Here is the input.
Amino acid sequence: MDATGDSRLGGGGWNNSSLMSHGFALLVTAAALLLQFVLYPYVRATPFLLFFGAVMLSAWNGGWGPGLLSAGLSAVAASYFFLPPRFAFSWRPEDLLSVSLFLAISTLIIRLNVHTRAAQADAEAQRERLHTLFMRAPAIIAIHRGPEHVFEFSNPVHAQLLGGRELLGRTVRQAQPELEGQGFYELLDRVYQTGEPIYGKEALANVGDPTHPRTGYFNFVYQPMPGRDGRPDGVMVFGFEVTEQVLARRGLERTERRLATITHNATLGLIMMDDRQHCVFMNPSAEQLTGFTLEELRGQPLHDCIHHTRPDGTPYPISECPIDRALATRCQERGHDVFVHKDGGFYPVAFTASPILEGDRATGLVIELRDTTEDQRKQAERERLLVELREAVRLRDEFLSVASHELRTPLTPLSLRLQGLERSIRAEPGSPLAARLGKEVDVMRRQVKRLSDLVNGLLDVSRITTGRMKLLLEEVELTEVTREVLARFQSEAQHARCALILDTDGPVSGQWDRLRLEQVLTNLLSNALKYGAGKPVHLHVEQREDRARLVVRDEGIGIHPEAMGRIFNRFERGVSERHYGGLGLGLYVTRQILAAMGGTVTAESTPAQGATFTVELPLQPVPSQGAA
Here is the structure.
């Protein structure tokens, strides 16, 4: 608002603007005086006419001060130059009345000009403030004029939304062709024609670069702007883009639907409590488990409904409840307890209580429940079966021990009888006895040995299982023992068409049980000859620091990868027993013997490329090793 007028008269301060306004008043007053002189013959009857114009211009330009200055000077000039007698001051009553009327009318003109100017300035300031507000607003604002909706205004948010394209002076159809077919042109037309605003919520629109528009969601209002005749002269568009909010809400709704699906289909019972320990949610599994529906428990203290009594009938205080303790401690609680069913019965549950935390405050609790009635029944059944299994194993081991001894008793004289018969045949190779029984005696001797090995294996398993396997530790030279065992296997190696090849770095001595060590070599060589028939068998003996190492490698059928993890178990075999005999005890006994002496045995194999067994033994007894 222009601050001339009262402020200048009362303030007493003069500045350049004030001087210029007063100078302008003097100038237009002088101009009016000159025109009055020029036009005097025509305006003789109205000596103040042109001076009214000077007062009006002075007041419009400068306000009260210049206006009053012009009015005063005009009154003096008109009185002196144009009121009769001219060029003299004659204050007749009628002249005083004319001058007074002039001054009164001039004052009114000044007042009207000042107020009009002030109103204009105020309107301009308001318009500027509104423009600034629209330009800085974080909303989409645009103004259309006329029935074609020509852009008159577009704020930066709106312009940025449309990719900074040229808008002002263009119709909406020219400026935003991507809106074609989306219904927005028709909405603008309706608002302009009816004068009724239209509101849109989460309206879908294609906006942005017309060649590469993007999809967005908008809340908007199309507000009619009335003209001077009261009829709509334009439409103001005001809106916000809510794409992120819509997508976030829809994502949340999808998550909630998934969560609802999960909770309603979960086999675990799920219950949620608020911070007052009142039930606010139960899934169907929890309803089935407790016997209560969600509507029956909603808003009720959960402990008082399903956990209030112990199986012995005594009350269960909430202060002792581990589930409710999770809310106070803000820590997860897990455990087993007994709940009370709606019908009054008890049922065991496994629970997990997890607090819902907001900052350092627990606002609720999620409880997972699982009925363990069936678990307890199955556990009891497992324990019963375990007792029966242990008894069956005890009876089996007892049977194996007795049966092995009973089988071994007749095998010993039978073996001696066959050895005597074999010596007789060798003594008289040309006799009828040798011709008739030579081959049969060899076959019988191998079968008796095979049966004897099986019996010995069963006896070893029995000793190992019952903890009765004894070790007699003494100084043993591994290379020497290996050669002796190889010598005993020459006949079997020839029968299997296998060459036995020993590679050694020299003597390797240690504290071991000699007979058990021979048994280990026998088991490994028997397997090598059985599964590697027709190909050489390689043995290697060496010492590595404080350990002895024995390697037995064949080039036979090998071991399938899936069988590698079980070949050292009892009664387990790496190949079909239809093609290869045995009980599957040799490698089990071998591992147990070596473990008793502090050693190990490992196997490596590739199918059809043979197998390699590596034995490692400490040279000195390990501290835990004993006679057991």
Summary: Confidence is low (pLDDT under 50) at residues 1-13. The first strand starts at residue 140 and ends at 145. The two ends are 113 Å apart (CA to CA). The CA atoms of residues 204 and 217 lie 5 Å apart.
